[in-house]
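Supplementary Text 2. Reproducibility record for the structural model of the 191-residue chain.

All settings were left at their defaults, and a single model was retained for analysis rather than an ensemble. We include the record here because the model underlies the residue-level annotations in Supplementary Table 4.
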Amino acid sequence: MHKLWKLPFRFLNGLIDRAIAVLGVVGFAQFPQFFAQYLQRLGGHLAEAQFLLLSYELTAEYFNMTLEEYIATHLQSGNEIFASSGQLIVELMNRIKALENSFLALNNAPAYSRWWVFLKEYDLEIVKETLSIFTPGIPTTTEGLIYGACGLLVAWVAYIMFKALLKILVRIITKPFSRRRRLMFPTQKQA
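Retained model, structure tokens:
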């Protein structure tokens, strides 16, 4: 009878275990797909920023100036409007450098360390944009298989840890209500 009441809990445990395993595999296996879409979007941001900078370079060239001279003219003009446009060009140049560095780091990262490079190099706005139009896919590459296996391992370890924590919490909560093995007030033997 003692084992009979545990049967539904074993069934539920097995069901939850398998569901979490599938979620881990499918979730982690999506990383290569997300990474590729993020890299495309990052490249788009980089190309657009470079196009904008090119228009400033052409304008500077039209006035027979280098871009640095053009920016300095704006910054030192004494006019707040022109100075702010010079500052925008400087910020655009800094943005291009950051995007180029990030793009190169991500593009040249080996498959086994892409997740780590991604965590170091990601741009939150581009991540949000990528997630808003992300299309999940069925991974058919070795990389997808490896990330799926890692997802299985991470999900399994997380579930085991969650169950252990839950078991500890149940013991702590039920301890005051459990039967005591010793009597609170043992009877005294009379001589």
